[in-house]
Amino acid sequence: MDAPLLLFGGPYSNLQATEAVLAEARRRHIPPHRIVCTGDVVAYGGDPKACVDLIRRSGIQIVMGNCEEQLAADAEDCGCGFAPGSECDRLSAAWFTFARSELDADDRAWMATLPRSLSVEIAGLRLVAVHGSLGEISRFVFASTPTRIKALDVTLAGADGIIGGHCGLPFTQSIGDGLWHNPGVVGMPANDGTPRVWYSVIEPGSEPRSIAIEHNALEYDHEAAASAMRRAGLPEGYTNALSSGLWPNCNVLPAREARLQGSALSPGTLSWAKTAPCATWPEALQPLGIAADKFKNPHLTAKGERRATVGLAALETLWINTGTLCNLSCSSCYIESTPRNDRLSYITASEVRSFLDEIESDGLPTRLVGFTGGEPFMNPELPEMLADVLARGFEALVLTNAMKPMRRYERALLDLKKKFGKRLTLRVSLDHYTRSLHELERGPHTWQPTLDGLDWLFKNGFKTHVAGRRYSGEAEGIVRAGYARQLAAYDIDPQEPGELVIFPEMDATVDVPEITESCWGVLGKSPAEVMCASSRMIVKRREASHPAVVACTLLPYDPSFELGTSLADASGPVSLNHPHCAKFCVLGGASCSVK
């Protein structure tokens, strides 16, 4: 009969907590070879050497964490994945320097031998333990991280489930017919306002190929652990967290996890099988779809409150949708662009010209004309449109994947740059700073061609920006830090929102509030900050006799956001009657225009 598994992460140099979890294993008669630690033996606490010695003597199974990786290499930082300059980054310098000084060459040599993943079997199921993710040791994977990202690891591992660590918070979640389980860490509380720490026990379930998962809280002598940190002169923020149960900051946390700071977790037991998925634990992180009664009435919310509207203050940006045809079929394209979707037809240069004429004849204050799609370079008349826009004195922005369609027009682009210089900007879509997640969205073999196109643009002196996405679920500071590493060779400031645009994710499985008139004051925002206060988009629907003006680049198909056939027709207010209005613009703070 299978013996139970006891799982925990992050001893974090907290000797008292590590002793307590190993004592719990003995109490439960779980032998060392059935105990798995997800890494980071050394981190915030005051006893790095004693913790390493204890883990080594214990004989348990352990995977390499980022701290072990960095200490084995005698690196100067923890490699935690914190955003540079963040409070986490500053505090880590103190505890990592202390840990380096306490460990010897033998400790570092042992750390270098640790595996990056290991497999365990129970009830005929194979689970693979990693620290962050299968391919990236310091990736933060939370309950709110999109399931398709977790599913990628489950698939690549060829396993029934993943046992993860690094993020510091316990959770369990079904991923299709797979499982993602994080037992939590013992070296630091779970940011839930209690000093308890967390581990888990997995046992065979009552049915074949099923398991029972216990999330357990562990009490230990946290005051002694805090005293050890103070004797070592370590930062008070983490020292106090051992007693308060509150992290000194939420820099690494996605919004959903950050909102739960101080909410005490309750131990839980779940049953899981490939044919019988379990609910998410903790229950507060169970994804909720958008309620069916929301976003129905253009004037009132589901609660009967007056819905917010946004007037067009000034048409500063005119967007042109060049057509929905694209060289790619991305997994979650908001406009469903593919090589076959021509729901929005190629707009012609003469049709665009009529709107430019209207801007000039009516004296509109338009500064920028942006081109989006689909892939704009699929439209054979794009160079003619760009030349017309730039010759009239407007700035032009093209959103592109920088792949083969763009490369076909290199000579035309070089001519435009020679004539109009920096008034032409190209914004290249790089959906994540890692190849695996970029290609998860855009498809295989898309990463290198995009980088090659980006490289060509920079080498030829084009004004070039990059657009990324938050679909990985990571905090924005961590995302920007990742892009900073990837784009280090280019003249781009990843901390400047106009040069590296990070768009919020439009996940339809996550509920979002409706925006009321009173929300502006509550949120401390102005309607003038929202995209439809300063822009409109031109689209040409398949089989339509003429183009139409719509309120928003995100909603080209929704008839309630179609405003007319001229810019004059489209100057009225827009009701924020769509989830994207809240998620992307008001709460996400995003804008498609050049800052």
Written description of the protein model:
With 595 residues, the protein is an alpha/beta fold. It folds into 2 domains: 5-285, Purple Acid Phosphatase, chain A, domain 2 (4-Layer Sandwich), CATH 3.60.21.10; 313-511 and 532-577, Aldolase class I (TIM Barrel, Alpha-Beta Barrel). It has helices spanning 15-27, 48-58, 66-72, 87-102, 105-112, 147-157, 222-231, 236-244, 255-259, 349-362, 382-391, 404-407, 410-420, 435-442, 447-459, 476-486, 519-523, 579-586; strands at residues 5-8, 35-37, 61-62, 118-122, 125-129, 161-163, 171-175, 178-182, 197-204, 210-218, 268-273, 309-310, 317-321, 368-372, 395-400, 424-429, 463-469, 500-503, 535-539, 548-550, 562-564, 574-575. Strand 9 (197-204) and strand 10 (210-218) form a beta hairpin. Helix 7 (222-231) packs antiparallel against helix 8 (236-244). The mean pLDDT is 94.
Give a short synopsis of this structure.
The chain has 595 residues and is an alpha/beta fold. The protein has helices at residues 15-27, 48-58, 66-72, 87-102, 105-112, 147-157, 222-231, 236-244, 255-259, 349-362, 382-391, 404-407, 410-420, 435-442, 447-459, 476-486, 519-523, 579-586; strands spanning 5-8, 35-37, 61-62, 118-122, 125-129, 161-163, 171-175, 178-182, 197-204, 210-218, 268-273, 309-310, 317-321, 368-372, 395-400, 424-429, 463-469, 500-503, 535-539, 548-550, 562-564, 574-575.
